[in-house]
Design goal:
Radius of gyration: 15 Å
Order of helices and strands: EEEEEHHHEEEE
Helix content: 10-25%
Strand content: 35-45%
Largest sheet: 7 strands, antiparallel
Number of strands: 9
Number of helices: 3
Strand order of the largest sheet: 1-2-3-4-5-7-6
Amino acid sequence: MRLCGMRGHSITRLESRFVWNDYKMYVAPYEKGKPIYYEFTECSVAEFARKYDLLEVMPALCNPDYTAMELLHAKLIRTTTCANGCKCDYMICGDEDEYCCKHPEYKDEQGCRRNLRGR
């Protein structure tokens, strides 16, 4: 089932999972008053970097996600990426949401911006 096109690409819905070219993702149902949550479970860029021993470039590709959210007055909370874990999790909330305080941001050893799991 084709849901929508993004720059000529199609997204196929598989129950609550989606396939967008070489990316596979899960999108949680929207709940008013709660952060938006989705996760990529396969990332072709991270797979390529892993295959060719180029993981050191991943912070340059992943970190701008935080900047993009900040420009929208939102906050990205991400505890892992496909490059340093088994998924890239995205939790998005308003930049003044108290939820942000429960997940402080830090940079890991590779230079990726990440958040601690909830306190």
